[in-house]
Amino acid sequence: MIENAKYPMPVNIVVAHGLEAKALITILGLERDQASSEFMEYSNSTMLRLIVSGMGKEAIAAAVSYLGKRQALEGAEIRAWLNIGIAGHRDAPIGSAWLGNKITDKGSGTSAYPPQLIEGFQVGSVVTVEEPETLYPLTAAYEMEASAFYAEATKYSTAELVQVFKVISDNLENPISEIDLQTIPDLIAAQAPQIISLINGMSEIAVGHNSSQQLPSCYHEICSKIHLTVSQQLLLKRLCQRYKALGLEDELRRVTDLNASSARQLIQQLTECIDRISEI
Amino acid sequence: MFSTIYIEEEVLESERVKALLDRFSQVPQVVCGRYGEVFNRKSQNFRLQKKAPALILAKKHGKKVLAAPSGYGYNDSKSYYFSHMLNCVYDCRYCFLQGMYSSANYVLFVNFDDFEEAIEEKIKENNGGGVYYSGYDCDSLALEPVSNFCRHFLPVFRRHPNAELEIRTKSTQVRCLLDTEVVSNCVIAMSFTTSEAAQQWEHKVPSIEKRLEALHKLQLAGWKVAIRFEPLILGSEGMAPYESLFTQIFSKLDVQKLHSVSSGLFRMPVDFHKRIVKLYPDEELYARPTETVDGMIALKSAHESSHLLAIEKLLLSYVSSEQYYRCA
Ligand code: SF4
Q1: What's the CA gap between B148 and B125, in Å, rounded?
Q2: Alpha carbon separation from A269 to A228, A240, A244, A261, A273 (Å, rounded)
């Protein structure tokens, strides 16, 4: 299954509860990551990562912020963020599931709308509440984390790559007070094909985005050899992108091999060279 | 056709909206407050959204008819533009809309009656005249089967024969026009670039042949048509691509009957350019050297003026100088 995937899956899965994580760990072939001390984390060799946040808006915002900040230090590539969890609904069957295309925070009354780029999923509304909802007044999945998850995760990624997937665990006929917690892993496991397909779709978009933004290796070599100020780094980055876009990576290497005496001189040489070659 | 349809609460009861929702009942529909909650949010990515754009049905508040940027038009009459839509179904890599919005979703303003009222007010202000451009923030015809733009706005201009409507497009959706009696003060202005440029940068746009065929049909039916050679992006191939483009176009159409022909170089506001570079760092067009003049980015070329003059000279061997103008 997914553990044999040959391609990267830069997706962070965030769940509130260990029971929601349980099935995912098996489905996705994840292993406990010992490095993290603040939250339970799991990962595999495909770049998939799962973090268990704890329940409620504060807890999930803290987990997203913790992981997002740490990953921002590790590199510039963006990752997709996926919140998977159980929810209640007035009359949707237990075990049904959907991607949230509207997330309303009941407390503030504000709504967010995750852009839907991936086809083939059931979609629906999600309402985030402070306390478990038993009356389910709207036609929506009621849960306790999505609005905070979305608000926080969109600080670290683009909105198109932040999604919430909710599995219905309770409804009016099967009230929340009667949920057998031990059935939660099974409810999530039953959605395995959907979850894997969603992760694949999100990965494909993230990988495509990252590859369009990828810098030539030369950039990193120069950075390791010459001291550059922040603004020089930005200039160099853009110059490297331009050489790449124009199919001039050999020329980029030739100019950088000239051993400029300073970052300023190197940037000047690179600018003059590319402007000369590419001007029509 | 659309990944999702978002509907502003305020327009839910509009007949136009009800009809659209009926027609696209299989597309997920989401009610929102104002369209700004969905469109053009800070953390959105135009390039990614282009993969599966959504349709947003909204009400346009505030000014609906605006003064056209200087140099946009072809005569000295006061000129205006109005946008019943934001964004475009096509995906031209040189398009400034990529830098203008962070969202690629299509916003369709459904309060056509309010636009009509604003247009009529402006016409009145201009003693019955003025030039009115549609297709500045969108392609007016490309979504015609959904918007019914022509069906609503052509009769408005039919009532005001001294006001002129220019519909700027790259679409071949001309059935709505061919099925209607000609509106003599309406001009269909089709934009073209060379076939090399079209292949490289005009994604999802109908082929030059198909666009030309549509114009030909319009001309035969008596509609006024115009040609816009925009944006001119000079390449290393010299004049050959223009020679073949001009031959193709002017041998197909009745040149005498052309309303106007214009050209305009690739230009865009610096801020838009910056945003597009971030979206498309891998795009050859945005890797070329540029220069900034009066807040606008242009491609830097030592030969730009001579190239442009050569193109104009060639163009003027087909059309009269009265028919031709250069966009600022
Ligand atoms: S047809 Fe016009 S509006 Fe549409 S993408 Fe191309 S340039 Fe932009």
Answers
A1: 27
A2: 15, 12, 16, 11, 6
Tell me the residues of chain A between 116 and 135 that have a Cβ less than 8 Å away from chain B: 116-119, 123, 125
Judge whether A245 and B283 are in contact, CB under 8 Å.
yes
Per-residue pLDDT at B136: 86
Distance CA B190, CA B226 (A): 6
Distance B114 CA to ligand 1 centre (A): 25
How much is the pLDDT for A6?
Answer: 67
Residues with CB under 6 A from ligand 1: B 88, 90-92, 95, 97, 139, 170
Q: Any idea what the Cα angle at residue B47 is, between residues A2 and A214, rounded to 5°?
A: 65
CATH of B5-326, one of 1.10.10.10, 3.10.20.90, 3.90.220.20, 3.80.30.30: 3.80.30.30
User: Is-contact A157 A80, C-beta < 8 A?
Assistant: yes
Task: Tell whether A138 lies on the interface with B, counting CB pairs under 8 A.
Answer: no
Rounded mean pLDDT of B71-95?
Answer: 90
The 10s digit of each residue's pLDDT in B208-235 is 999 999 999 999 999 999 999 999 998 8
pLDDT at position A280 is 77
Give the 3-state secondary structure of residue B264.
strand
Architecture of domain A11-211: 3-Layer(aba) Sandwich (3.40)
**pTM metric for this prediction:** 0.95
The residue extents of the domains of chain A are: 11-211, 215-279
Alpha carbons B28 and B56: distance in angstroms, whole number: 12
DSSP 8-state class, residue A104:
E
Q: How do the domains of chain B map onto residue ranges?
A: 5-326
